Amino acid sequence: MKTAEKTGVVLAEKKVDQKKMRAKVKRVLLFLSIIAIILLILIPIYLLFKISVSAPQDILTQHPPFLIKNFTWKHWLKILSAGQIWNPLWKSVIVASMVALLGIIIAAPGAYVISRLPKKIKYGVLLAIFSTRMFPEVGIALPISVTFIKWGLLDTNLGLVLAHLIRVLPLMAWVLTGTFDTIPRDLEQSAVVDGCNKIQALVKVVLPLSLAGLAAGAILSWLESWNEFTYAIYLCLADTTLPIKTYYYISRGNWFESAAYAVFLTFPVMIITFVLQNYLKSDYLSGALKY
Amino acid sequence: MGKVLLLTMIKGIKKPKGRMFLMKKAYRLLLGLVILSLLVSCTTMAAPKSLKVIMGLAEEEWNVMREHIFPAFEKEYNVKIEAYQTEAQDTEKILEARAKANRMDIDLISQDNMRLATLVERGLVEDLSEYRSLIPATVIPALVDVGEFGGKLYFLPYRPNIEIAFYNSLKFAQYGLKPPTNWDELFNVARTFKEKEGVARVAIKADLSPCTTVHLFDFCRSAGGDPVVLDDKGCFEAFVFLQKLWPYLSPDSKTANWNFMNRHIATESVYLGQNWPFGMNVIVKDGGKKEVLAYQGWRGPVKESHVLGGDVIGIPKGAPNKALAIEFAKYLMSKEVQEKLATYNGWPAVRSDAYGTVEEWQRPYFDAINEALKYAEARPNLLYWDAVDKALGEAFREGVIEQKPVKPALEKWAKFIRDNKR
């Protein structure tokens, strides 16, 4: 009996050990895959940065080294001293920020209403809104730009903001509808029971809880606008955006300055992502309701 | 007061002096001032304050324009030149949007001569036939031809460009080779590099983009063929040669275009390849590869031929300041400007009587350009250019890359060109 018991215990222990082992292996694999994904994302950025601060002899060789050998700020100084970077940077920042802000102001109320519609109607409306993104941009950019030029919006921030909103609004509506869906109606009703009117319930309860979604939407629309190219070609000539400037350097075939521009292009993206990521927390709604 | 005026008019009696007289004087003064201000404003309207120009230039080239070219014209015509950067492929979009909105605000464009057909086909540029006499007699004739469509002149010559052959002189010296001057030598050089290094080191632009078309034009024409016909004897000979050469060409050929050819040469994965002269700035000036030299390239069994590239001047339809734009075009073609452009930008001059002194390091490349220009041939101006481009690329894929029989491939794609003729 004792031997059988002992065997049973040993088997059980073995099973536990195996489970622990499996869990450990899983964790290591997860960790490794996270590292692999991070490297996949970071290596191209590193290579761009490396080219932008390397002496030509390090890059223009059959076997360029992976690490930076002869460091130089020469290419950076060249693009910064040319004085061509600041106006496009400023324009891109202004336009992208206005697009993100206006996008939220316009899309959030619409998305809230859509999220409170009956399911069948809701998805129909969402699909209808999202279908506007099905048209290839190159196909619609010309007629839209022609209209904007007729309205005198050439080389203005407003023209570009409006053009970018065409792309951004459906995306924002989609993201924000999903966000409002996750906020239980009971919370609003509880707020009303506690003495809030509907607007107060929206402002004081729903809006703070939807900050994560709003931040995600803002980042997405900011990035969409920041990287946008087609409308900028049509609508900006005297006053261009940073992606157009970068494209200009790439078109001229200068690798080092192109790399410096491309790296420069990522700085504001990093800043805006770091600022807004504070709002991207998944546990906003945990414990919101007690049944 | 009215009574006095009436009396004055009817009876013609002596003008009464006093308040009435002063008022009349004031009216006349006012009228004079109005007429004067109208005249002034009309004169102001007649002389534009700015001339809007779009060009595709590198930053250094813009500096030359702003420091050495624009100021003299601005001073002479009391006008400000507003010049903006656009790439050739975007010029069509920019003009089309403005033309459709009926808000053309651009007065002059300089455009790559390989991207003119669309501008003409869509009616985006003015017919400049009446200004033909403005073209100096010393201008390279082929560059005038590229601006003509259907017997009308739409573009004025401004800047010639031509591909030259860049080669790594150290690698050539290492194996005792000389830059090839004909097809046989080209084949021998390609084979020698492959045998010595185990990897092919000669490249042509074979990414099947319009860059490939330029090289195929050179090969076909130098064998006496017409690439627009494609199934003639010369093209057949050229494609057979390319089929034979292909195994000895660098694998980088498949990615080589105007941009990557520079990279392949600069990173020493290719020792010989043809590209546009701006490569000297990228490879030699910025990249520091002083061992990369250049010469005009090779001839074929019949002749030497190089596609004439470069920029031409056009006036957008509905340009607000057409007369002044024509003056500016004339100025850009002038001997004075062409000499400055040669000196400061290292551009070959559009006219044979303009000589510039280029920087010392640019001299061998500049000489190669001028030598190649002697054998320059413009591409025909065809509205069905897209079909020719596609046919040449596909014939190259089948006959050269896939090593299929050349004749059927050429016949198939020659028919495609004929079917798409407009």
- SSE pattern of chain A: HHHHHHHHHHHHH
Label the CATH architecture of the largest domain in chain A.
Orthogonal Bundle
Largest sheet of chain B: 6 strands, mixed
Question: Cα distance, first to last residue of chain B?
Answer: 79 Å
Give the biggest sheet of chain A.
Answer: none
Radius of gyration of chain B, Cα only, in angstroms? 29 Å
Low-confidence stretches of chain B: 1-16, 41-45
Task: Give a verbal description of the structure.
The complex is a heterodimer of chains A (291) and B (422). With 291 residues, chain A is mainly alpha-helical. Chain A is built from 13 helices and no strands. Chain A is flat. Chain B is of the alpha/beta class and 422 residues long. Chain B has 17 helices and eleven strands. In chain B, helix 3 links the parallel strand 1 (50-55) and strand 2. In chain B, helix 9 packs across helix 10 (233-245). Chain B is elongated, with a radius of gyration of 29 Å. The model of chain B is unreliable at 1-16 and 41-45 (pLDDT under 50).
Give the gist of this structure.
By secondary structure, chain A is mostly helical. Helix content of chain A is 76%, strand content 0%. In chain A, α4 packs across α10.
Question: Any key phrases for this structure?
Answer:
heterodimer; A: 291 residues; mainly alpha; MetI-like fold; B: 422 residues; alpha/beta; D-Maltodextrin-Binding Protein, domain 2; 2 domains; six-stranded mixed beta sheet; disordered N terminus
